[in-house]
Structures are given as structure tokens and as C-alpha cells.
Amino acid sequence: MRITELLTRETILLSMSAASKQDAVNELVGVLEKAGKITNRDAFKEAILKREQQSTTGVGDGIAIPHAKTSVVKEAAIVFGRSEAGIDYQSLDGQPAHLFFMIAAPEGANNTHLEALARLSSILMKAEAREKLLGAKTADDVIGIINSYDKDENEEKVERSNKKFIVAVTACPTGIAHTYMAADSLKAKAAEMGVDIKVETNGSGGAKNVLTKEDIENAEAVIIAADTKVDMDRFAGKPLIDVPVADGIRKPKDLIEKAVKKDAPLYKASGNAAAEKKESRGGVYKHLMNGVSNMLPFVVGGGILIAISFMFGYNAFNPDDPSYHPIAKALMDIGGGSGAFGLLVPILAGFIALSIADRPGFAPGMVGGLLAATGGGGFLGGLVAGFLAGYLVLGLKKLFAGLPASLEGIKTILLYPLFGIALTGFIMLFLVNKPVGALNQAITDWLSGLGTGNAVLLGVVLGLMMAFDMGGPVNKAAYVFGTGLLANGVYEPMAAIMAAGMVPPLGIALATTIFKNKFSKEDQDAGKANYIMGLSFITEGAIPFAAADPLRVIPSVMAGSAVAGGLTMMFNIGLRAPHGGLFVVPLVEGGWLLYLAAILIGSIVSAVLLGLLKKPVTK
């Protein structure tokens, strides 16, 4: 199939009027709708924008290739759009985009469609083709230019020479454009540098130009430029460079130079390529988050139940107190130390160890966590116990690797639990609990005795962290900090963290309502949804706005969150439930009106800053 069977006169727009990324997408989707290529304009636009959130399709050199594969596409099609002025499409090279190719692929796109789309990506890598498209006068000129370059090539064959030889694999989530552009960029740069290369492309139509065992054995090194899963174990023992697909497009020279010099670690097969890749990018953080995510249901459920028990009176759970109420006691028993909260530290440690050493690490981790909880080590002791148990069991696995195969079954049911629990327990009891317990108590005492000024500063820092990456590692670090303090009976930082987490979506919602001239109609509609997300403590509602305009949005929401966090600490507000949103407002300690005021003031600060910093939208 030729590309011009997908790109027709009715899908060519030689003069785009759009001035922003959102407007460009809207305009190109409109061409598809008018041509009858899609059944649902809004659904296709949503699919395009969802792809943009993964990584920009503004690939640089003045080109943008927004694309999506969805069931609302009636037949595969390509829209060509040209902007003489250029549009800020958040391209990889930071330059405006002039040439747009919007690709619409149906859910069941066949290989001939996908191969045509791959050839289009290859054509656009040629500077002379781009120059001709910029100068085209008519739709027929565009079709003629594409046809002149559209040659259906068979799989490449790399002839061995005395040159250095490397191999590469490219892949992107959609498998339509970036996969092939990265491949062509690597091949073009390798030819320029006098290096032989063979590139396997893992596109929507399946793997093409697949690397053979001989290819891999003869290669100096391997380049993986991919944003999706790649079969990695075949590269065991080879120097391997693993980067996002965008680097294959933008940094081919750096990657090839590194490969030729073998300046990369040797890849070690894991038997589970996906797990190996995840581990290399996650490490300690991944193990920690595995523990925290499994602990959170206990923290949330237990914390809210404890907070509800206080609504009967702060001592209503105590049978010796005049305010005693049996329901309050039941709530405290279920949520407190004899219930959900009593399991926090063991669960945290157990699942950290499970992440590190798989199932054999779970029991030693749980026992180590329990010893930390009962021995004064607390939350910090649980962290130590989890990593200690996990890596101890990994050591035991290596130690017992030489045992006869007939004893394989006894390792899991006897050796790992026996030695894992014993070693973890002895180390926790005699080496860890006392010093970590002392440190834990010192931190708790310091936080409990903070003066107003220092408390406000802590709230400001926590607020900045919550808004910096809105659900990323920095945000989660603040959350983990607050969760650990809850287990130690310090509740004020959690209130600051929860208030700060509500500000980004609420601030954006207010800004889109008050400063309508600074936001497009689509942004205003999305802003309304942010009211609900902010009030429900869904910080991620702010992410699309931050992705579209990070230099203005992120500082604005960080400032508002810092104000909210600082105010809650100044008002001495506490929160035992590690969750935000309106439904926990009645559970705050120290005045729910002041808590709401802190959130509202922070949101207004963010909204005003956005209104001042953002430029008016051009009609």
C-alpha cells in the first residue's frame, strides 16, 4: 500500500490557523472528521492527547506526528497540515513545528497500513523531503513529493565489513512513528560515522528486521531505544545501552559513540526481562513503594476509624473515662494498635522484603517488622527490617545454590524461613532496634516540640514536595514521611501534606474560571473537572496542565501548596487519616474551618499566579 492511499487531497491542509498545541490537534482532528475517517471526534482527540501525555510527538526538525490507534477510526488515514508561522508543540528540540502528519489507525490495522506509516516516518527523516513539503504550493504537490520518496523496501541486509558493527532495537508504545524514526535516525548517523548497524523495529505490525543470534554475537554492543517491553535476555553478556525511544531520534551520535567504545555495562540475563528492566530503573525506590503501597490500606482504613472514634470524645474508647462509649472502643480496637495500625510496620517490612527476594523474603520481613514495632524501632525500624530481610534472603539463595537438586523443595519450606527469620530477628533485636528506636524517638520529640516558625517551614517544604511532581517520587517521599509520623503519634505534618495535595487541581480550577482569557475552551472544560478532583484529593488532575505549560504551572501550584502546608502547621492542625479530600475534613484536629481556609488560600495563591504568568490565548 502506498502512503498516498492514506494521504489524500481531502486530508491535506496547507495553511493551518492554530496557534497552540491544543488548537493544532483540534484543527487536524477536524479535517479527519470532515473527511469521514472517524466516527467520534472527541474520542479520537482524547486518544491523541493520551498519546501526547506519554511523550511528545513533536520529534524535532519542525515535524510533529500526532497519532493514535483506536476503534473510532473507520479507515486508516493521514492528515497533512502545514503552519508557516510554526506552532509550539513541545518538540524534543524545543523548536516550533511546521509540518504535521496526524496518523489515524483503526484498531485492527493490517500490516500493509502499518508498513506505509513506517515508510512515512522514514521519509520525514530526510531534510530534502522536508524542504520540498515546506515549499509545496498545492495538495497535488504534497502528494507528488511523498510519492517520489515512497519506496516499499524489503528488510535491510547488513553486509559485514571491516567496520565496527552494532545492533539496536527501537520501540514505542503505539509502534507507529517513533519506532521507525528512531531506527532511521540511528541508521543515518551510523552510515555517516562509518559504522555498520542493524536495527530491529518493534512496531504495531510486529518485530521487523529481527536480530539473529549471529547478529548479536558479532555486535560490539547493543542499543535499546524503547519505551515499551523488549525481549532482553538474548543480549546477555553484551554491552547494552538502554534509553527512551526519543534519544534514538535526537541523540544517535552519542549512542553510537558509546556503543562503539563499549562504554556500557554488560547485560545480565534474569529469566524475566520485564522484571530486569523495571529493577534497573526502580531499585531501592521500587522496593520501598511496594511496601508503602501495600501498607496504605491499613493506614487509611485504620486512621479514619481512629479519627471517627474521637468524634465520640478523645477518651471515649477508654472504659475508665466518663465519656466512654462502646462504639468508640470498638472503632479504636479495629483501627488502632491492636488492629490495623498494629500491622502497619510488619506489612511495610514484609512487602519490601517480598519485592527484593520474592516469596522467601516475606516471612523474615514480616517478623523483622513486628520486632521493630514492638521493640521501639517503629516505622524507621520497619524500613530497616524490610531491606535487611530481603537482602539476607538473597544472600541465602546464593549460599544454598550449590545444594543437590533433590533438596530444591526443602529450601522454600525450611531453609529460607528458618535462617531468614533467625538472622533477621537476631540482627533486629541486638543491633538495630535500640539505635533506630533512639533516633525514631528523637525525631518524634523534635517534631512535637517544634516552635511555630520551624513548624511553618516544615509545612512549606512538605507543600513544595507534594506539588513538585504531583504523584511522582518527590510527592511520595513527602507522603511516606507523613505516614511514618502517624505511626509515631505525630499528626500535624499529615494535615499539611493532605492540604497541599488538594491545592494544584483546585488552583487550576479557580484559574480557568477567573482568568478565562488565559485558557482555551478545552482547558476551561478540563478545569471544571479539577474542582471535583481537587475536593477528592486527586492531585493528578493538574498533570495535563503542568505537562502543557510546565514553566508557568508547576511554580504556581508549588507556591500555593507551600502556603497551604505552612498555614496548617501554623494553625497547629492535625490529621490522623492519611488521606485528603472533603470527606476527612470533619476528622481534622484543631479546627476544620481553619483547615479549609488554608486550602482555599493556597488555591487562590496558585490561581492568581497562573493568571499573572500565563499569556492570553490567541483566538
From TrEMBL:
The keyword Phosphoprotein applies. The keyword Cell membrane applies. Residues 166-261 form the PTS EIIB type-2 domain. Coiled coil: none annotated. It is a multi-pass membrane protein. Keywords: Cell membrane, Membrane, Phosphoprotein, Phosphotransferase system, Sugar transport, Transferase, Transmembrane, Transmembrane helix, Transport. It comes from the Bacteria. Residues 284-619 form the PTS EIIC type-2 domain. It is found in: Cell inner membrane. The chain crosses the membrane at residues 295-314, 334-357, 369-393, 413-432, 444-468, 494-515, 553-573, 593-613. InterPro entries: Bacterial_PTS_Sugar_Transport, PTrfase/Anion_transptr, PTS_EIIA_type-2_dom, PTS_EIIB-like_sf, PTS_EIIB_2, PTS_EIIB_2/3, PTS_EIIC_2, PTS_IIA_fruc. This is Fructose-specific PTS transporter subunit EIIC. It comes from Mesobacillus jeotgali.
